[in-house]
Amino acid sequence: MTDASPPPARPPGWQLPQGSCDSHTHIFGPYDRFPVVHQMHYTPPFAPVELHLDMRVRTGLERGVIVQPGAYGSDPELMIDALNASGGKLRGICASSTLDEKTFDRWHAAGIRGLRFNDMTVPGGTGRFPGAVATEALDDLVPGMRARGWHAEIWGPIDRHADLIPRYRSLGIPVVLDHMASLVVSRGVDDPAFRKILRALQEGWLWVKLVLCRCSQAFPDYADLRPFHDALIAANPNHLVWGSDWPHLRLADRAPDVGHLLDLFREWEPDETVRHRILVKNPTELYDF
Is position 8 within any domain? Predict the structure, then answer.
């Protein structure tokens, strides 16, 4: 059983620069070819790569990054199939707790440029997400990642990120934090954990994804995130990428429209040069387009 497909995105009210990239998306199905590996706490949507392409065409997002969801665990075949058919317009972030050199090379040739690690717990539960690879697996994987120019993408609570910053820094590879580092809106921008993220961002080795919908309940305009968004850009716009989180798992009627998210980005960042940096230049560098 799957949920319906996400509704078509509306075009944003402005023309995106050529080469713009949605740096955080997922794909699901078709399930007769790519069945899920893990039963999740949500019903997976029908969101195959064809609908992903439709979303990008409608919004002007020429490029995209597919991030492995827990439902597919460490099975990369759906992702690799999508990357192979993309004409170089897509990159992938997969997940695995162990990789041999041959597999590293195969995944790299397909367009995978990093591995995802997940330290979050299931909402309402105590355990980690099914299919998640925790940050404890990093040490064994870093040599192969470093040799290929890959990065670690990490989803975890902001307090855990703050505690692990010395370890992240020591890895010698770029570290990318999902979902605005999972900041806590109620703590404000002076939250010590958030300030640690800003300082690491300023140091030039940490990256953060500007993905709004997991950090705020203020749908659809997320006004409470604006101060955090501004603080991240002020800290280091050269190490930020933008993402929609399409197809917005578990959000139901609070799922944002990608065109509206892009309009918010333009409103919040009026400097065209900075927008181009975050939408085009940074992902080109980070994902090796």
Answer: no
State which H helix or E strand residue 103 sits in: helix 101-110
CB-neighbour burial class of residue 123 (10 A; exposed 0-12, middle 13-18, buried 19+): exposed
What CA–CA distance (Å, rounded) separates 212 from 256? Answer: 9
Q: Residue 236 — φ and ψ, nearest 5°?
A: -175, 90
Q: Specify the pLDDT at position 126.
A: 67
Distance CA 232, CA 239 (A): 9
Taking only the tens place, the pLDDT of each residue in 163-215 is: 999 999 999 999 999 999 999 999 999 999 999 999 999 999 999 999 999 99
CATH number for position 90: 3.20.20.140
* Amino acid at position 28, single letter: F
> What number of other Cβ atoms are within 10 A of residue 152's Cβ?
23
Q: What is the mean pLDDT of the chain?
A: 94
Answer whether residue 113 is part of any domain: yes
Predicted model pTM: 0.95
Cα dihedral across residues 146, 110, 60, 256: positive or negative = negative
pLDDT score recorded for residue 71: 83
242 located within any domain: yes
Question: Domain range spanning residue 125?
Answer: 21-287
How far is the C-alpha of 53 from the C-alpha of 211, rounded, in Å? 19
Tell me, what amino acid is at 81? D
Q: Residues 231, 268: contact at Cβ < 8 Å?
A: no
Phi then psi for 25, rounded to 5 degrees? Answer: -140, 170
Looking at residue 2, its pLDDT comes to 56
List the chain residues with pLDDT less than 50: 1
In-domain check, residue 13: no
> What is the total count of domains within the chain?
1
